[in-house]
Design goal:
The protein contains seven helices and nine strands. With 230 residues, the chain is an alpha/beta fold. The chain has one domain: Alpha-Beta Barrel (TIM Barrel), CATH 3.20.20. The structure holds iron/sulfur cluster.
Length: 230
């Protein structure tokens, strides 16, 4: 598996749990607002054996692991890494956009929680993923897998007004409601961090929270919206 970097301790990636963060290299999407754009290419990072990743990632004063990227599920040996991390007895969290349900399904036995990035509703998905075909059916399949599992499902969406509208966010909430989801849905602002490509930054505007607050007026029963402005 290609590994871009490993951060020994993070206090912000999993709520209330200090974790070691493992960034896998490569992604099958090309989101304009990607904060880790330099690791989108499939050849990014370094090829590492599962055992070497585990040795490099364990032994820190943490209570868990967060596996992010890039898109971790493009790596067919991800379940092997998760199995090894889970055997430590610590919390295992995965960040994914859900486009590879066949791999995600094999990961489920070794996961405690998943941050699930819902990029957009079906109709506007390609505007953000910039893939050759719309992966919406795979996204839905992945959400169904998670919702029928014991794994904590934490949906979230990155908002910038030039790519999404409040109505898009409302549509996503209706999809979640239709799938039987109950719980917290996080909407976070796009941040023009150092990892975003300058060519993309030129077209993206950091949103003001007032641009999205209206979605709180019409939230389906059982869903709590949390606006996370960073
Ligand atoms: S899915 Fe995530 S890692 Fe991949 S391009 Fe989009 S924001 Fe970046």
């Amino acid at each position: 598996m290609r590994i871009a970097s490993i951060i020994d301790i993070s206090l912000v990636d999993v709520p209330g749990i200090p974790v070691t963060v493992i960034f896998t290299g490569g992604c099958n999407f090309d989101c304009p607002y990607c904060q880790n754009a330099e690791i989108i290419p499939r050849i990014s990072g370094t090829e590492m054996a599962i055992q070497d990743i585990v040795e490099r990632s364990t032994g820190n004063l943490v209570d868990g692991f967060c596996i992010t990227g890039g898109e971790p599920t493009i790596h067919g040996d991800l379940p092997d890494l998760l199995r090894a991390l889970k055997s430590t007895g610590l919390h295992v969290n995965l960040n994914t956009q859900g486009s590879v349900p066949s791999v995600l399904e094999k990961c489920l036995p070794f996961l405690d929680s998943v941050w699930f990035d819902i990029k957009a509703p079906s109709e506007t998905y390609l505007r953000i993923s910039r893939t050759s075909t719309n992966p919406w059916n795979q996204i839905v399949e992945s959400m169904k897998l998670l919702l029928s599992s014991e794994v904590a499902f934490w949906p979230r969406t990155t908002f910038t007004r030039s790519l999404l509208s409040p109505s898009d966010i409302s549509t996503i909430m209706l999809v979640l409601e239709g799938m039987g989801f109950q719980g917290e849905y996080v909407i976070q602002n796009y941040v023009a961090s150092a990892g975003v490509r300058p060519s993309e930054k030129a077209h993206l505007k950091v949103p003001d929270i007032s641009e999205i607050e209206s979605v709180k007026d019409n939230v389906p029963a059982g869903i709590d919206v949390r606006l996370e402005w960073r």
